[in-house]
Write a structure and sequence with these properties.
By secondary structure, the chain is mainly α. It is built from twelve helices and no strands. It has three domains: 116 residues, no CATH class; 70 residues, no CATH class; 31 residues.
Length: 233
């Protein structure tokens, strides 16, 4: 019992990771994972509907294990580190309460190891908030560099990352008056430019898909469903 009390954090996170790895190795890939695995076979700075991060993570894991575990390996690791960073961002009054909340979230347990963009999105979001906390406390060169890299990695994961960063800075608008904020933004622009160049080469295909074509597909789908319901009744 004393051992559990002294090493509860190590036991919790190692158990979480072992469970994620076991699930990764023993379950078949879902359709989306197979789709992104194909992405990993053709490295590029961008793809039709997503930035390249998920393809890079799958490629890294698959180079170690040529099976389902390899496809999900990095994502399983990131899911564990997401919880670790999230706990570090919270007030450490009762770690067991944090463990209980984490275990009560079925989505984290059942799908947290899946090799889909949402898994690294959660990790890099946690990393962004960790960097943001350090940045607003002390705007050193190191923290400026850290938040710039965190934002870039978030953008390379999923386009939704823009909303996370945008609303975070809008909640603290005075940051826009600091030169360190603009320096971090310039760093993001430089590091993200390969993907933007790829988009320019391909006629901004991802942005057109998400902003226009996907919406048209959704409207068409809803129209069909309404017609089916009308005809049924």
């Amino acid at each position: 019992m004393n051992f559990f009390r002294k090493h509860h954090r190590l036991l919790f996170y190692s158990s979480w990771l072992m469970l994620a790895l076991a699930q990764s190795a023993s379950t078949e890939l879902i359709a989306d994972e197979a789709y992104y695995w194909v992405y990993s076979k053709f490295p590029a700075w961008g793809y039709f509907d997503h930035p390249p991060m998920i393809a890079l993570l799958i490629k890294a894991g698959y180079s170690i294990f040529h099976n389902e575990l390899g496809v999900r390996l990095i994502c399983a690791l990131l899911s564990t580190f997401t919880l670790l960073i999230t706990e570090s961002l919270s007030e450490r009054k009762n770690p067991f309460l944090f463990y209980t909340i984490a275990l009560s979230m079925a989505a984290l347990q059942v799908a947290g190891f899946f090799a889909v963009p949402d898994t690294p999105l959660l990790f890099f979001t946690a990393l962004f908030f960790y960097a943001y906390r350090s940045f607003i406390k002390k705007m050193t060169w190191q923290n400026t560099l850290l938040i710039g890299i965190a934002i870039t990695l978030l953008f390379y994961t999923k386009y939704h990352g823009l909303l996370i960063v945008l609303f975070t800075f809008l909640s603290n608008i005075k940051l826009l008056t600091r030169w360190q904020t603009w320096l971090a933004g310039l760093l993001v622009l430089v590091l993200y430019s390969p993907h933007l160049y790829w988009q320019w080469q391909h006629d901004w295909i991802s942005f057109r898909y998400h902003l226009f074509e996907r919406m048209s597909m959704l409207i068409s789908f809803l129209r069909q469903q309404i017609i089916c319901l009308v005809n049924y009744y």
